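Internal tracking record. Fields below are filled automatically when a chain is submitted to the structure queue. Please do not edit lines marked as system-generated. If the sequence contains nonstandard residues, flag them in the REMARKS field before resubmitting.
Queue: standard
Priority: normal
Entity type: single polypeptide chain
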Amino acid sequence: MHGKILVVDDEQPIAEILKFNLEKEGYQVVCAFDGGTAVELAFSEEPDLILLDIMLPVKGGMDVCREVRAKRDIPIIMLTAKDSELDKVLGLELGADDYVTKPFGTRELLARVKAHLRRQNKALPSQQEAAEPTGLRIHRLMIDSDMYIVYKDRQPLDLTHREFELVYYMGKHCGRVMTREHLLQAVWGFEYLGDVRTVDVTIRRLREKIEDDPSKPEYIMTRRGLGYMMRNPRNGGPL
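SYSTEM-GENERATED OUTPUT FOLLOWS
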């Protein structure tokens, strides 16, 4: 499994090292050294994944992420020399799928790239679309595991792959309270080094998309001091 990767970093030596290692793995690599060029290449080259530095000239990495995510749903891994929780959370809020803090190991980065591309390829729609989606049904939600689509009242929701994986995993374990650490390991996987705020941010984004009123959720419940639980409103039970 190979694909095209857009590497965005204003430090050309770092970009060239990443390009060298990715090409050794069989990937096609395109580089950009500023945010403006990055946005242009994200649409003209149609990469399968973007490695995106936060600190960029012309246009910052956060702005690049926002612009790309508004039109394309591809994996974005943020590269940052900053290790503050605010930067990580902000990147995730804008739609980034993952982040790696510099300095990082090549092996770790390649593992994350491969994992995200596997998920991306699995999520590509098949040639024949079923007339009626099949999968998990939770009250007004239908989670189609073959097409990687969540429907609410038969209308598809605009979820990222990570959001889909989280709601699908929680749906398979409906009624079970799971800790943030458990969700981080089960959904993000591959020895993910992020902190549990990653789960909180993704849960918040999910609620904005699947709940009628995100401030009064009916599907994804918080169990204070424990974690989160998927609930089927049709079955009743405590909120």
